[in-house]
Write a structure and sequence with these properties.
This protein is of the alpha/beta class and about 230 residues long. Helix content is about 40%, strand content about 25%.
Length: about 230
């Protein structure tokens, strides 16, 4: 579904991604692990059209995404839940969800909003509430729900557990699994390596702009380097 080949991305003269290549197959959950500054967010921002690579290619369902504007990337079937949620704080829950459907003009938007409320019943209870007054967990639910309103085939998730209490982290990851079972392919960027590897099929480890390790989720979870660097084991 997604093929990334020899991707080089710069911030000015800073070489952020140094020739990374990876793939995400249809129906998979693939996780991208790495410490702060490794290039995980840069990768997702490049996939969603927010950054332009100097070299390499990104292909989605056989077509290159290079030079495609972010809103056209959404039209092609990719949505991005950014790090820090980036909801519209002054808009209501419903208005935020409507913003997620801004590329659509069909008659099923209300039906899809009901579907989001089925996934996140708490949002339905707060549908008229100003989004900036929601709790952190509710804002993460809203960010994911907003992305789903575009009917993505590939969902890019950037640090969905950041700043959440453990019980909410479990709830968010259970929801990610449920979304995947409904047919949405997921590329997950996550510092909580144990949780990410528990739901992913495959994973890649990103270190200072390179991908030195890849493999099945179980294989990575048992890798001594991964266990020491990302799972807190000596």
């Amino acid at each position: 579904m997604l093929e990334v080949t020899d991707l080089h991305v710069y911030y000015g003269e800073i070489h952020a991604l140094k020739g990374i290549s990876f793939r995400v197959g249809q129906g998979e959950i693939v996780t991208l692990l790495g410490n702060n500054g490794a290039g995980k967010t840069t990768t997702l921002r490049t996939l969603s059209g927010l950054l332009a690579p100097r070299q390499g290619d990104v292909r989605f369902e056989g077509s290159s995404l290079l030079g495609i504007a972010p809103h056209d990337v959404v039209l092609k079937g990719i949505t991005h839940v950014p790090e820090g949620r980036r909801i519209f704080n002054r808009l209501s829950v419903v208005e935020n969800l409507e913003m997620g459907a801004y590329t659509r003009a069909d008659s099923a938007i209300a039906q899809d909003m009901d579907h989001v409320f089925t996934i996140f019943p708490r949002l339905k209870e707060r549908r008229s509430q100003v989004a900036g007054t929601l709790s952190g967990g509710e804002q993460q639910m809203l960010a994911i729900g907003r992305a789903l309103m575009a009917r993505p085939r590939l969902l890019l998730l950037d640090e969905p557990s950041m700043g959440l209490a453990p019980v909410l982290v479990e709830q968010i990851f259970e929801t990610v699994l449920a979304i995947n079972r409904q047919g949405v392919t997921i590329l997950l960027v996550e510092q909580n390596a144990a949780m990410a590897l528990s739901i992913a099929e495959r994973g890649y480890v990103l270190e200072t702009g390179r991908l030195p390790l890849e493999g099945g989720a179980r294989e990575l979870a048992e890798n001594p380097e991964v266990r020491r660097a990302y799972l807190g084991e000596a």
